[in-house]
Each structure stands twice: as structure tokens, then as C-alpha cells.
Amino acid sequence: MRNFSLKKSTILAIFLTLAFTVHGQGEVISNRAVIDMSRAGLSPEIIRAKILRSDTNFEVTAKALIELKEGGVPDDIIALMLERADSALPGTPPRQAAEPAFSENTPPETEPKPEGHPTERPVPDPKEAIRMARTIAFKKSSAHPSRQNLEKALLKNKDFTRLNLTILRYKEEADLFVEIGYVSGSWLTHRYVYRIFDRRSGAVLAAGETTSWGSLADNLARHISRSLLSIMTS
What we know:
Distance between the termini: 58 Å
Largest sheet: 5 strands, mixed
Structural class: alpha/beta
Number of domains: 2
CATH class of the largest domain: Alpha Beta
Number of strands: 7
Oligomer: single chain
Strand order of the largest sheet: 4-3-5-6-7
Order of helices and strands: HEHHEHHHEHHEEEEH
CATH topology of the largest domain: Rossmann fold
Radius of gyration: 19 Å
């Protein structure tokens, strides 16, 4: 009976997630909608999927955050709401309406070519690109880890401090940027992959993967730092 209930709950969660994907494209999710979903008993995974697949208009004042907490919204969902609100601030680069799940077959994201320059930028030597870099930024297509946890893990990583890189909020301003994504379908292994780009040319300098076992932020910080350092010192 317990196994039957578990299977029934799993099927319901999958059905609701698919329903959100199909019907949530034009819907704008607000604080009240998140509170209502939490009070209705929807799991954090379903609420997260709904937020990532919808346009959002979140209020993140101190009063609003208190109302979210009192409304039963989990902390990781509140953190995700803060990130989505940051990406919609005036004067910041526009976000996509829905972040796609990461796929190993997804081609690397490249920078748009400047007008009046029809030829591609030359691909830099990876070692030289990293040696000359002074700044780095991160882009995530997954809710985890939070930006704050990842930055904290990087700043305390000894290999990363040796690189002498300053972390920036937006990739358009950085010398290097890192794309991080959850590998869709890796429910058992919890795989996350990353790709390190030279921002100016769009060239992939390094790539790797890790899992969320233990601390995902620490795992990513360790692997990303080692990838960069191994190229620079090769």
C-alpha cells in the first residue's frame, strides 16, 4: 500500500510538472501564486519547475520575504525567487522567459557578432586566455547551487584564489564565463556539468562534470578551479 501511494505521488508530480510546462508559458508568477502553491501542498521541486518555466514578477522587499516565510514557502524557493528578481532589474541584461534543462547535446552559447565585423574572432590559446583574464562570471540553467553558495565556495577554494580572478554578476562584463547545468534525466546520479568560455571569442576553454553528492557548491568550485589552474600551469 505504501509503495502504491509513493508511485501515485510520483505520477501526480510528473503530471503536474508537464501541465505547468504546457500551460505556464504566458502566465506571470507572483509572490501570491508561490504562497498559494506552497499552502496547497505542492512540493518544492514542482514549485521550482513552475518558476523556471514561467515569466515572474516577484517582490523581494524585506516585508515580502517575511510574508513568503510566514506563508510556508521553503528557503530554497525564496532564494530562487531572489535570483529571478535580480535578473529582471532595470538596466541588467534581459533574461529568457524559460531556462531550458541542460543537455549534453546543447551547442555552446556564443556571443553575438558585432556589426561591421563579418569575420569570426580568432580562437585564443586557452592558457593565454586564462592567464590574461581578470574577471569571471557564472550562468546557471539550474536552481542549484544558489549563486551565493557558489561564490562563497569559490572564494574559499585555494586553487581559485591562485587564479586571482574577480567574480562579476554579468557575463557581458567578464573575461571568462562558466555555464552550469543539471543533466536532465540524471535523477539517480545527480550530475551537473560546466563549460568554461572565453567571453570575447565564445571558445570553449574547458569542460567537466560533478555530482551534487556532499556539497554541490564545493564540488563545482573545486572542479572549475582545478580545470582553470591545470590549463594555466600546463
